[in-house]
Design a protein that fits this description.
The N and C termini lie far apart (about 45 Å). The protein has a seven-stranded mixed beta sheet, with helices on both faces. The chain is about 30% helix and about 30% strand. Strand 4 (about 75-85), helix 4 (about 90-105) and strand 5 (about 110-115) form a beta-alpha-beta unit. The radius of gyration is 18 Å and the shape is globular. The chain has one domain (about 1-165): Gcn5-related N-acetyltransferase (GNAT) (Aminopeptidase, 3-Layer(aba) Sandwich). The chain has about 170 residues and is an alpha+beta fold. Residues about 160-170 have low confidence and may be disordered. The protein has helices at about 10-25, 30-35, 45-50, 90-105, 120-125; strands at about 1-5, 55-60, 65-70, 75-85, 110-115, 130-140, 140-150.
Length: about 170
C-alpha cells in the first residue's frame, strides 16, 4: 500500500535510508563516501525539517515500510527514492516513482528531473529518464559525481473520455 508520510514515520524512514545506502552502495562507493552520504548517527531534526517540506510517499506491507520517495516543494524534482534492501527488484521503487510522477502531473509539471547515483542510474533509465548533465553534490567533506536525469511527463489520455469530435479523420 502506498500512502503519504507522517511524522510518526520519521525514524523508520531514516533507518531505511541509512541501512539501504550502506547495504547496496558498497560496490560503487568507499566506506568514507557512504558514511558521508548516510551517517550512522543521523541528525533527526534535520530529517524532520526535510520531510516536512516535501511531498513524501511510502510503501508499506505488514512487515513495515518497504520504500519511500520525495518530490521537492515545486513538484518537479524527485529528490529521494529508496527501497529497503530486502525489497529491491520487487516493484516497490517503480510503484512509488509512478505515484510521484502522477502527483507531479496533477500539479501541472511537464518535465520531472532527478539526481541519481551510479547505483540507481539504470533503474531510472529503464523507466524513461534520459541523461541531462553531470553535477557534483557535496555531503560533508565528500564530493560525489552525480547524473541529472529528466523525463517528459504528460497527462495520460483516457481513451474512454475522448469524444468523437476530438478524433481527426485524415
Amino acid at each position: 500500500m502506498i500512502r503519504k508520510y507522517t511524522l510518526a514515520d520519521l525514524e523508520s524512514v531514516v533507518m531505511l535510508f541509512t541501512q539501504t545506502v550502506h547495504m547496496i552502495s558498497c560496490d560503487y562507493y568507499s566506506l568514507e563516501e557512504i558514511e558521508a552520504w548516510a551517517p550512522l548517527h543521523p541528525d533527526m531534526s534535520a530529517w524532520e525539517r526535510y520531510f516536512g517540506e516535501r511531498y513524501t510517499l511510502l510503501m508499506e506491507c505488514d512487515k513495515g515500510i518497504t520504500g519511500f520517495g520525495c518530490l521537492n516543494p515545486d513538484g518537479n524534482n524527485v529528490e529521494m527514492l529508496y527501497t529497503h534492501h530486502n525489497y529491491q527488484s520487487r516493484g516497490v521503487g517503480s510503484a512509488i516513482l509512478e505515484a510521484l510522477e502522477k502527483e507531479a502531473r496533477r500539479r501541472g509539471v511537464k518535465e520531472i528531473m532527478l539526481t541519481t547515483s551510479t547505483s540507481a542510474k539504470n533503474f531510472y533509465q529503464k523507466r524513461g529518464y534520459k541523461y541531462h548533465h553531470n553535477e557534483k553534490k557535496k555531503y560533508g567533506a565528500i564530493v560525489f559525481d552525480c547524473q541529472i536525469l529528466c523525463k517528459k511527463i504528460v497527462e495520460k489520455l483516457d481513451i474512454n473520455s475522448v469524444s468523437d469530435k476530438t478524433i481527426i479523420n485524415k
